[in-house]
Amino acid sequence: MVPATLDVKGTKILAKSLFKELRGSGYSPNQILSLSTELIDLVTQDLKGDESVPVTGEPPRDWRAAL
Questions:
Q1: What percent of the chain has pLDDT over 90?
Q2: Is the Cβ–Cβ distance between 35 and 67 less than 8 Å?
Q3: pLDDT by residue (tens digit) across 3-12?
Q4: What is the pLDDT of residues 25-41, one digit of tens each?
């Protein structure tokens, strides 16, 4: 379970772990950058209150295929 708030150190560790996992799974730096951009867009929409962005539930099973 992810805590409601992460400190700066925890956030950096999580980001580094995710990056290493994606690179280890064969994703290119450009694919990871594209994913990061999409995440920023989703967070931005969520902060703006865009109700079309799902905030709960599981991602599609084939979310990696989109990268």
A1: 54
A2: yes
A3: 556 688 888 9
A4: 999 999 999 999 999 99
Helices (H) and strands (E) in the chain, counts: 2, 0
User: Which amino acid does the sequence have at 43?
Assistant: V
Residues whose CB is less than 8 angstroms from the CB of residue 6 and which lie 6 or more positions away in sequence, other chains included:
14
DSSP 25: T
Let me know if 24 is exposed, middle or buried by CB neighbors in 10 A (0-12, 13-18, 19+).
exposed
Tokens representing residue 47 in the block = 């902060």
Written as six digits, the tokens of 30 are 């450009």
Residue 42 · residue 53 · CB < 8 Å:
yes
Average pLDDT over residues 55-65: 56
